[in-house]
Design a protein that fits this description.
By secondary structure, the protein is of the alpha/beta class. It has a single domain, classed as Rossmann fold, CATH 3.40.50.300. It has seven helices and nine strands. Strands 3-2-4-5-1-6-7-8-9 form a nine-stranded mixed β-sheet, with helices on both faces. α2 links the parallel β2 and β3. The longest helix has 16 residues. The relative contact order is 0.22.
Length: 236
Amino acid sequence: MFKNSIPGLEKVFKTDIEPPCVVLITGPPGSMKTSFCYTLMSKYLESVNQFGLYCTLEETSQSHLKNMKSLGIKLSPHMQISDFTDLREVDKVVDEGGETDYIKFIEKMIVYFKKKYGDKFTVFSLDSLGALYSLMEDVTKMRKRMFYFFKMLRDNNITAFIVMERSAGAESQLLGNEGFLVDGIIMLGLDRNRGKLVRYLQVEKMRATQHSMEKHAVEVGKDGIVVLGPIFDTGE
């Protein structure tokens, strides 16, 4: 997944992740969390005969694709894009209180595509967790609900990337202690290096893999995101 997708990620990961796996992609606004997830999925699906679902709740599918095209990232024919209009226009999934349960709807989407594509459905992105919570009327007991949501993803043998906005220095959690429940956390941030503001990627947690914990510079090339290397190069 990481070693055959975004150029330069092989500098960060000595060993790759294996499904099932749930990874938080965190960072402040402008750190390219969406671009990272989309590039990762698109590049990965180019090289394998598998299917991916990208669920964007921050913008429409058309707006999302326009932004990705401006970065030189092509839509994979093996990826379905779903946006917040899907959640509002389809038959509602309601809980006992008569409120729309968006988590259940996303779970129904996962089950639907799993039945349609079987073992070929391997990759899922949710963009973003904060947007999902903002749609929900009832946000009580979120640790329990997210525990079972992540369990559902793992039970379906899916590698999932969950986008979560997070300011520098803040904890990797919102309402459901997400940082403790996931298998990995990747921080995308902005750092000032030699007088320049540099985008970077840093792995804070990734179970069952060997990886660097240094900050690695990230830039947008003609074909999307590229990982350049450690920001503070030791010269070794």
